[in-house]
Amino acid sequence: MQHRPRPRAGRLHAALRCPPFTRHGLPLHGRCGKLAAAFRPPGSCVRQALRLLPLPLCIACALAAHHPAAAADDDIEPDWSLCPIVESVPEFPDAHPATGSPADRASLPTDIAGDRLAGVDGESLEYSGNVTLRRGDQFLGADNLEYRSESSTYVASGRVRYQDSGMRLVAERLEGDQEADTHRVDNVTYQLTERRGNGGAERIEMKGAQGALYGSTYSTCPPDDRWWELRAERIDIDNDEGQGIARNATLRLGKVPVLYVPLFAFPTDNRRRTGLLYPSISYSSRNGFDWRQPIYLNLAPHYDMTLEPRLMTRRGLMLGTEFRYRTQGGSGVFDVELFPSDRLARDGRQDEIDQGILPENRRKDDRGMFRFSGQQAVNRHWQARTNLSWASDPRYLEDSSSNLQGRTDFSVRSDLGVYGRGRSWDAGIMADYWQLGDYTQPERVLPYHRLPRLYANWEDSFGRFLVAGASADLTRFQHADSRARPGGSRLDFKPWVSMPLEGAAWYITPTLAWRYTGYELEDDLARLVAQAQGIAPDASPSRSLPITTVDAGVYFDRTLLFRGEQHLQTLEPRLFYLNTPWRDQSALPLLDTQAMSYSWGQLFRDNRFTGADRQADANQLTLALTTRLVNAETGREKLAASLGQIHYFEDSRVGLGPGSPVIREGRSAWIADASYEINDRWSIGGTYHWNPASSQEDLASVRTRYLVGDDGVVNLSYRYRRNADTRADLLEQVDFSFLYPLDPSWSLVGRYYYSLLDNQLLEGIAGVQWDSCCVAARLVARRYVRNYLGEMNDAIQLEIEFKGLGSAGPKTTDRLRRAILGYHREDLYLVPPPEVRNDDGIPPPADVSP
């Protein structure tokens, strides 16, 4: 390298060649100007300084974050709307927009600018006056920056400030030793930008990948309104291990310390760590005080475990275990609950005897449950999926549930299978098994096990006007109570061909199908069917018949002015003709077939039964009409109304058995459905089934919703349903729920879900919420039906949420979100993606191609 005379300090030379950074042996080139001297040095001083400063961000995130495996990610972000706009560290006016992402930092050069430069070759460089360093998304500014080559030390002082895509930081002084790789920052204040965290430290020291913070703080609250704050006397960081250790840490509410931890470890990156997770505390009249303390075990990079000891003062000690694993192309979760010596089983034994509960359905002394859910890709077309469940007794679901769903699941289903899908086909082989979950019923009410079931579906187009397809299903049926319900095998095969014709505003689709169903029954089942039908036993009955449908519709629209806005009104009449001849099906058993509930979708189906054991004979025509009112500018649907009815040209004689209701010649019940948005806040809707045969309604429901402010909602609905054949009332319910804000911080929540038919409360909720920028609290009281006998349970739950840190207490928001539609305003606008499902209700596997 060419040697030049050493300039004297304070003088500027237009052609000055700056001395090299000796650590890398790379020269620093540049031109020096009076107001802006710009350079591109690859020197270690600048790069090490920039590497140092993100350390507080790493530590702050670690203090604020949940453990990576603590819980499933919540899809609702904390509400920061009550926070002030001003941040603790405002944006720096001299920090220009980023020129790259964090991932590009290593490959980008560093630009230096300053008002003055002075130095002595091989000894030191001094930058002064608005010194700035930029690399990608990183910015470092200071009044002065000095680097001494002989000692490899540097000092930045005077308004030291740093900014990148994740944080902003100001400090009093920054200094370090490049050779020893030691660095120190004094009087640090930082503001996270991607999260609302902010805080500071008296000083930060770092040596290589090891670091330490002294007198550090963290909070998501504004600096002048500290509702909560984390403080630590010292925090040691090991970036190589991805772990930090905090000493003498306290959590303060205001100025009052509420939690002191002398020593605890936490992760500083996404690597999982063994440790305690946040506990959950609640109270109910059934369990007493309920404490859950999850313990996370990081066993290996591809599997882990969470133990959850649970203490219920009225029932005893329970242990829950979750084991998760991930493989190449697959994953799975094991859940085990062990509850030895449940006092509820011992204390309630006499009540079960008095209620006449069958001995096999009573609570066991030692109780528990097992679940496994997993999937594994076989290749790009095939995938194995498993969902296994087992409970020690039928009452376990009721006793372990805290919502209404626990009392409506009368069975526990397990299934496993291999499923495939291609461009024009899907197929699978699977098996399922049922366990009783309703202790008031015997095992014979359970569905048949399918051990196994093989199915295949195919559909393809042959030109523009021809579509053909076929479906096949072969199933072996067995039952848990084989004496009362013997089994057998069934083959169902249905090929079809369709000719779709369509224009710009019309379509007509005739379809011709042939359905064959054959059985191989156990002798006992054949005899039971024959006795019930009064016919001779047949162990190999079958049925075959054609099915003809014609689906046609037209589409009309016009523009009109409605309430001063342009709207598009549509008129969509639709006809659906179905013709299926009668076949005697009295020799066919009922293995998985039931009558469908009358609904809008049934107007356009080719069978009014589920399963393959019954194919209804039909000669009928559906007339339907739908109209919509759509805002021409926004595309938002203002009004939708539909009306439909089936006209039966002859009796439908196929039923589920002797004495079962059949369809008579005439007309079905009218189905009407409508929804209307009165304005941006009010909406109403309803469904009504009017039966002309009885001159009564079979179903009526009315619903209305009012949006209060930006977050509140009030829901009111009424539901009534009657059995169209027996004229017996099935349900009559009213449901009132609300989230009502009193002011920006306080709000009330509640639900009143009542059965008018039974004169009984199904669920009642009353609660109060308080919210601020960084803290939220919810106190909720619930009373709900917990079993089929109508017995009630009372519970009180308190949750305190430190936004950006975590929450203490049970997750009340999940419960309120299910009970109050619109509790999160985003839920009102969620539209589930369309999903094609197999006949058993299981979606086909996703394309797992690499």
TrEMBL record:
Organism source for this protein?
Luteimonas granuli
Function noted in UniProt: Together with LptE, is involved in the assembly of lipopolysaccharide (LPS) at the surface of the outer membrane.
Q: Which PANTHER family match?
A: LPS-ASSEMBLY PROTEIN, LPS-ASSEMBLY PROTEIN LPTD
Q: Where in the cell is it found?
A: Cell outer membrane
**One GO cellular component, as annotated:** cell outer membrane
**NCBIfam families, A to Z:** PRK04423.1
Q: Which SUPFAM superfamilies does this entry report, sorted A to Z?
A: Porins
**Which Pfam families does the entry mention?**
LptD (PF04453), LptD_2 (PF19838), LptD_N (PF03968)
The source's domain of life comes to: Bacteria
**BP term (GO), one:** Gram-negative-bacterium-type cell outer membrane assembly
- How does it associate, per the subunit comment? Component of the lipopolysaccharide transport and assembly complex. Interacts with LptE and LptA.
Asked if the Swiss-Prot or TrEMBL record annotates the protein with the keyword Signal, the reply is yes
What keywords appear on the UniProt entry? Cell outer membrane, Membrane, Signal
**The LPS-assembly protein LptD central domain covers which part of the protein?**
246-328
The name this protein goes by in its record:
LPS-assembly protein LptD
Family that this chain belongs to: Belongs to the LptD family.
Residue ranges annotated for the Organic solvent tolerance-like N-terminal domain, each copy included? 125-242
Q: Any idea where the LptD C-terminal domain is?
A: 366-746
Main localization of the protein described in the UniProt heading? membrane
